[in-house]
Design brief:
- The complex is a heterodimer of chains A (259) and B (316).
- In chain A, 33% of the residues lie in helices and 25% in strands.
- Chain A is α/β, with parallel strands linked by helices and 259 residues long.
- Chain A has two domains: 174 residues, Rossmann fold (3-Layer(aba) Sandwich), CATH 3.40.50.300; 69 residues, no CATH class.
- In chain A, the strands form two sheets. A six-stranded mixed beta sheet of chain A has the order 6-7-8-3-9-10, with helices on both faces.
- Helix content of chain B is 78%, strand content 0%.
- Chain B starts with a helix and ends in a 10-residue tail after the last helix.
- The chains are: A alpha/beta (259), B mainly alpha (316).
- Chains A and B meet through strand 6 and helix 3 of A and helix 10 and helix 11 of B.
């Protein structure tokens, strides 16, 4: 099995225009096992997206190190696929060529052309090879962007609120789709989300993060058998546990009045 | 019923024009042409639209086309008829400066070989200049868009030299180039270079960074990102630059030909003006209008072909 991410004391600071510094990631130590599905959850500004960008290699850590299968991460690579909240399909390419982008960029399109069809089928877009991104619905575009990341067979798939912009029904469908793809391919999945239910429904582990200082507050192993039921008592118990942590972390104020 | 009648408007308008041309007495002050060219042209036009009107009963596409155009075509012919009455029939305007449509038509037909030679030499100049200008503009724009270093050194030059109208260089260029052809080519290239460079550069700088980030996580290297992400994403801007450049090239071409070059359609107009042959001047202008309009239409066709993924930026 490949796809193990190891993060050692990673720190990332951002300089603001007025000269002050903001610490977005504050000494995170974490190991994500190969084939694991992990979610980062937390309020805005807790550094979860920054952490994902560090793993992707789009930003460099100021201190500490990140490893994929023991090799240091220095720059973006096709080993670590990335899917944004916005599908970010290239509007000048049709869906086929969008999905094929990674294969072409790595110069293996001729040999692996069949892969494009395979992943287009996998995400249910086999009839849309010739369509352009502006002709697709939001859910279809996001599935295409998923196929584009998967066709490279990355060791790790990084998902930055991938379903955030979708309506509730499309969203639940896509969650099942993600699970199916994960179970089929056993790729390590690292997802950032705002949605507690989504994190619980999908993940082996949920990492609850808090802002200022940006750190991992709690690591929760979700030991519920799949397929999970969103109204299962254990599901609801863990859900309220997470909500409690987030609330507790979010405001420590006393209520204004007691009944 | 009214719709049916509208389809026949061009024919009615053409018939009226022929009637006036044949039966209204010509003013003696307008010179006669060798052949009744206007009559021939109107006859061909009227017969053509009569056939179209009949065809439109059977063919849906012809019908739609005719329904859309008939009013405009009829009005244009009516305007031509009014011009004909004002000039050839009653000579209400100064005869030297406002020749009859018949006379202008006779110049285009009788002088066609010479006009074509002029058009060809203008075309050669325009294409050579535009080609090198667009190429230079593209390279400058890509360099400025992708390299901070290049932007540091090139941007001030672009900003200083670009806004100068290319024609302002004429006194220097005409003495520093070996031939008037190379000098004019340079001027045209200069006028195309500036808008192409500026819009290509800003097009690339405005590409969302997320596209580059996504492509780098898909395994694209620097050059692959430049040619497969940056440039395609900047294409809509580039075409606006080319469009502006081509319009500037037309201006430069005409000015250059009127000042220094010894052939070409701009030179022809200027020469005929000096000879007080205004019918020839109008003939030249008509040829320029048609040619440039066709060239711009071609540019937009190419753009629509390349940018099928995008809804039009400027309509033409």
């Amino acid at each position: 099995m490949v796809g193990e991410i190891k993060i050692e004391a990673a720190v990332k600071r951002f300089h603001q225009q007025d000269g002050t510094e903001i610490t977005a990631v504050n000494g995170v130590d974490l190991t994500i096992h190969a084939g694991e599905f992990v979610s980062f959850i937390g309020p805005s500004g807790c550094g979860k997206s920054t952490l994902l960008r560090l793993i992707a290699g789009l930003d460099k850590a100021d201190e500490g190190k990140l490893y994929l299968d023991g090799v240091g991460i220095t720059k973006p690579s096709s080993d670590r696929g990335l899917v944004f909240q916005n599908p970010m399909l290239f509007p000048w390419l049709n869906i086929h060529h969008n999905v094929a982008f990674g294969l072409k960029a790595r110069g293996v399109y001729k040999e692996e052309k069949g892969e494009v069809d395979k992943f287009m089928d996998l995400v249910g877009l086999s009839e849309f090879h010739k369509s352009y991104p502006h002709q697709l619905s939001g859910g279809m575009a996001q599935r295409a962007s998923l196929a584009r990341a998967l066709v490279n067979r990355p060791k790790v798939l990084l998902l930055d609120e991938p379903l955030g912009a979708l309506d509730a029904f499309t969203r639940m469908n896509m969650q099942d789709e993600l699970l199916r793809i994960w179970q089929e391919r056993k790729t390590t999945m690292i997802m950032v989300t705002h949605d507690v239910d989504e994190a619980l429904y999908l993940s082996d582990r949920v990492l609850v993060m808090t802002p200022r200082p940006a750190k991992i507050e709690k690591c929760i192993d979700v030991q519920i058998a799949r397929p999970r039921n969103r109204s299962n008592p254990e599901f609801l118990r863990v859900r309220s546990q997470i909500l409690r942590i987030l609330n507790f972390a979010g405001n420590e104020k006393e209520p204004d009045y007691y009944l | 019923m009214l719709k049916r009648l509208q389809d026949w408007l061009p024919v009615v308008s053409g018939g009226l024009a022929i009637f006036i041309e044949l039966f209204l007495k010509n003013s003696s002050r307008h010179p006669r042409t060798q052949e009744p060219y206007l009559f021939y042209a109107l006859l061909i036009f009227t017969i053509f639209f009569a056939i179209i009107a009949i065809l439109s009963c059977f063919n849906k596409r012809v019908k739609i086309w005719l329904a859309e155009k008939s009013l405009f075509v009829a009005a244009s012919i009516l305007a031509l008829t009014i011009l004909n009455i004002v000039t050839k029939k009653f000579a209400l305007l100064p005869v030297i400066f406002f020749p009859s449509p018949d006379k202008i038509l006779s110049v285009i037909i009788e002088d066609r070989t010479f006009l074509l030679t002029c058009l060809a030499s203008s075309g050669k100049l325009l294409f050579t200049g535009c080609f090198f200008g667009a190429l230079a503009g593209f390279i400058t724009g890509v360099a400025v868009g992708f390299s901070k270093n290049a932007a540091y050194w090139i941007n001030p030059i672009v900003r200083l030299l670009g806004p100068i109208p290319a024609t302002a260089w004429i006194p220097i260029v005409l003495v520093s180039f070996p031939t008037t052809f190379s000098a004019s080519c340079f001027l045209i290239a200069l006028s195309v270079w500036f808008p192409t460079a500026v819009l290509t550069g800003s097009g690339i700088l405005n590409v969302q960074n997320a596209y580059f980030e996504v492509s780098s996580t898909l395994g694209a290297g620097r050059f692959y990102q430049i040619f497969k992400v940056g440039i395609p994403a900047a294409m809509p801007h580039m075409f606006i630059g080319l469009f502006n450049g081509l319009c500037a090239a037309f201006i430069t071409l005409m000015t250059a030909e009127m000042l220094g070059v010894k052939n070409g359609i701009g030179w022809y107009i200027n020469w005929q003006k000096d000879m007080m042959a205004y019918a020839n001047v109008y003939a030249g202008l008509i040829i320029i209008a048609v040619t440039f309009s066709v060239l711009l239409t071609l540019l937009f066709r190419v753009r629509d072909g390349i940018l099928v993924w995008q809804k039009g930026v400027i309509k033409w």
